[in-house]
Specification:
Radius of gyration: 17 Å
Strand content: 25-35%
Shape: globular
Number of strands: 7
Number of helices: 2
Order of helices and strands: HHEEEEEEE
Length: about 180
């Protein structure tokens, strides 16, 4: 069972809100995202070594479970906002430049009682906080998933909350 009890998550106070708006049938949306990812891995821009692209079939995913999609509230931090982190990218020489924006607060009912946090980052040149980069580890790390963790890309909803959906988590390209 996927329990995103993140190593970088700690129990905290959280205000929850209504679930994020659905962009259509949820399962179809996730299936389409996963199909697009598989197509990318089969393309000329694939992060896979050239000799592996021809034999690539599909990425492995956990079963889709809507209970791993929850709203998250961003608490913007004034600490470390000026610090730029340069994250290496295995598929390019360029480094991804991000800065710590704050902490996401959320509850995950399938993980039992308690509330959690994840650190949220934003691209250095982003004009606002509408899209966040969220790296995390959980109880599957180094067992069923990459030990270094997985990533989420979050969009702010019209409510001001973020759509935190672990069904969309992905591995960094260095895994492949």
């Amino acid at each position: 069972s996927l329990l995103p009890v993140a190593v970088i998550a700690t129990a905290v106070a959280c205000t929850s809100g209504p679930p994020p708006p659905d962009d259509g049938p949820y399962r179809a949306t996730i299936d389409r995202l996963r199909a697009d990812n598989n197509a990318f891995f089969k393309s000329k821009d694939s992060p896979l070594p050239a000799d592996k692209v021809a034999t690539f079939t599909a990425l492995a995913y956990f079963p889709i479970d809507e209970s791993y999609r929850v709203p998250a509230r961003l608490e913007v931090s004034t600490v470390d906002r000026a610090t730029v982190l340069e994250l290496p990218q295995s598929h390019t020489e360029e480094k991804r430049k991000v800065r710590r924006l704050g902490v996401l607060h959320f509850s995950l009912p399938v993980a039992g009682e308690g509330e959690f946090t994840l650190t949220a980052f934003v691209e250095v040149d982003a004009p606002d906080a509408k899209r966040l980069f969220v790296p995390f580890t959980d109880m599957t790390s180094n067992k069923e998933t990459y030990g270094g963790g997985r990533y989420l890309e979050l969009k702010q909803t019209p409510t001001g909350l973020y759509d935190l959906d672990f069904n969309t988590a992905y591995h960094p390209y260095c895994v492949y």
